[in-house]
Design a protein that fits this description.
Largest sheet: 4 strands, antiparallel
Number of strands: 11
Radius of gyration: 16 Å
Shape: globular
Order of helices and strands: EHEEEEEEEEEE
Strand content: 35-45%
Structural class: mainly beta
Length: 155
């Protein structure tokens, strides 16, 4: 896994209101039936991700193999809604990737880098996630939205 652009202590963690760890569906292959593993989760209508708004940013949350990942909601290709995408493991390392539901672009959930198709410099923003002992989910941000202090947004 690649190192983050920032140290852990450089983030401010904001709670994701209304979302708890146990509320997020577990998306690991072990939890799927054989037919679900063959048929896309999107086609089987099983919920995959969760769309949330934190710090005025639309973010997709996924729980995969017990780990919560957070990435930008909008695919940089043509704006597909990533919270509706499937999770797929790539390569021998079984790298978890989010697959855009519109054109099947695949991004690493860990780093945000585009894996398929192979294009340089295309990346999703990823967010560090913390889950406390009560199951509350927190997302790390580098700076607060300017609207945070002027009452322009409910947080």
């Amino acid at each position: 896994m690649e190192e983050s652009d920032c140290r852990e202590d450089e983030y401010l963690y904001l709670i994701v209101d209304g979302v708890r760890y146990e509320d997020l569906p577990e998306l690991s292959v072990e939890n799927c039936t054989f037919s679900q593993a063959i048929v896309s989760r999107r086609r089987s209508s099983q919920l995959t991700g969760r769309l949330v708004v934190v710090n005025k940013e639309k973010i997709s949350l996924f729980k995969y193999r017990g780990t919560v990942y957070a990435v930008d909601e909008i695919c940089p290709h043509t704006g597909g809604p990533l919270h509706l995408g499937d999770i797929e493991e790539l390569g021998e390392a079984k790298l978890p990737c989010i697959v855009c539901p519109w054109h099947s672009w695949k991004f690493s959930l860990q780093t945000g880098h585009l894996k398929v198709p192979h294009k340089s410099n295309v990346k999703l923003r990823t967010y560090p996630v913390r889950v406390n002992e009560k199951g509350e989910v927190y997302l790390g941000v580098k700076a607060l939205s300017p609207d945070y202090f002027n009452g322009g947004t409910d947080f």
